[in-house]
């Protein structure tokens, strides 16, 4: 019986142990058909559950006060060419430039994909 190559190191020497497939070279274990999306890249979604990718345009769905300023990003503000930040510890997982305000970070829960 032929088993698929290891998704982590591409080793051809994988074997089955119960319901898991195991790689003897890197010790990675997975179920057949399992995809590595959660380990290699975090999926970031907007307020409606649409998956966001780098370069998307989004619209702000809530007035957002800018910390340390009296300015506000208004509802309906369109933001072009966003850049996603995968491991944002503070929850601000979108880097962008907003016309009239400048560079800032946003939380994906306050935007929707255009």
User: DSSP strand (E) fraction?
Assistant: 25-35%
Alpha-beta classification = mainly beta
Question: According to CATH, what is the class of the largest domain?
Answer: Mainly Beta
N-to-C SSE series? EEEHEEEEEEEE
Residue share in helix: under 10%
| Total domain modules | 2
Oligomer class: single chain
Q: Radius of gyration from the CA trace?
A: 20 Å
**Could you say what the CATH architecture of the largest domain is?**
Roll
CA(first)-CA(last) distance: 48 Å
Protein name: Alkylphosphonate utilization protein
Domain Protein YjdM N-terminal: 3-30
Family: Belongs to the YjdM family.
Domain Protein YjdM C-terminal: 44-114
Describe this structure in words.
The protein has 114 residues and is mostly beta strands. The protein folds into two domains: 1-37, N-terminal domain of TfIIb (Single Sheet); 58-113, SH3 Domains (SH3 type barrels), CATH 2.30.30. Helices cover 4% and strands 29% of the residues. The strands form four sheets. The chain has a three-stranded antiparallel β-sheet, with no helix packed on it. It has a three-stranded antiparallel β-sheet with strand order 7-4-11, with no helix packed on it. Strand 1 and strand 2 (20-22) form a beta hairpin. The longest helix is centred in the middle third of the chain and has 4 residues, at 37-40. It is elongated.
Summary, kept brief:
Helix content is 4%, strand content 29%. The protein has 114 residues and is mainly beta.
């Amino acid at each position: 019986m032929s088993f698929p190559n290891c998704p982590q190191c591409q080793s051809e020497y994988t074997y089955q142990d119960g319901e898991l497939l195991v790689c003897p070279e890197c010790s990675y274990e997975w179920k057949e058909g399992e995809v590595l999306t959660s380990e290699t890249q975090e999926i970031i979604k907007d307020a409606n559950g649409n998956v966001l990718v780098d370069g998307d345009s989004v619209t702000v769905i809530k007035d957002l006060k800018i910390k340390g300023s009296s300015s506000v990003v208004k509802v309906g503000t369109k933001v072009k060419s966003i850049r996603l930040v995968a491991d944002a510890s503070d929850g601000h997982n979108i880097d962008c430039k907003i016309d009239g305000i400048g560079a800032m970070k946003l939380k994906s829960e306050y935007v929707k994909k255009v």
